[in-house]
Amino acid sequence: MSLRINDQAPNFTAQTTQGEITFHDWIGDSWAVLFSHPKDFTPVCTTELGFAAGLEDEFAKRNCKMIGLSVDPVDNHAEWAKDIEETQGHPVKFPMIGDTDLNVSKLYNMFPADETGSSEGRTALTNATVRSVFIIGPDKNIKLMMTYPMTTGRNFNEIIRVLDSMQLTAKHKVATPVNWENGDDVIIVPAVSNEEAKEKYPDGWNELKPYLRVVKQPN
To answer: Which residues are catalytic?
Structure first.
């Protein structure tokens, strides 16, 4: 069954570099970013994990946990983490899942449910679909899904931007326009009447069209 935005994120129990976790319990009341990698000791993913590790404090400020995944064993992850710190300058402090039975990858549609075998003997090429990002809310629902090709590094500044947008729009009845950055003007959603908008935004807004009302970002 395919996953869609607002579906409940599949729960699972798995071994990680920080011991066994049950995913929903591990998330708790936080947001979470789950990002997956086709294989340990691969070049693009090494740069991604190092950059993400350097942003851990930024994610923490947003009450968001990070967790990585590769189909390789946890012991391999620990060795890879040494290379990541050496080459990228940041230690990986967040957990990394060892998905050797491919269970999590199948649950999250990165492999077909009928995929056979384990991680043994697999190459990065055969795992090319395991290059995804999921942002999951405190309600355990999927808020964002993105899948990248193997040769293109993920943009974690964009992931933070989207997280900022989703947290803002979850709190206020607004949406964020194209290329929005934190602090830019936002859009009052059509479900908010002008009467309600006057109460929320007494200083007014810029009405480009009745359905396109631009206002300063609320605090």
So the answer is: 45
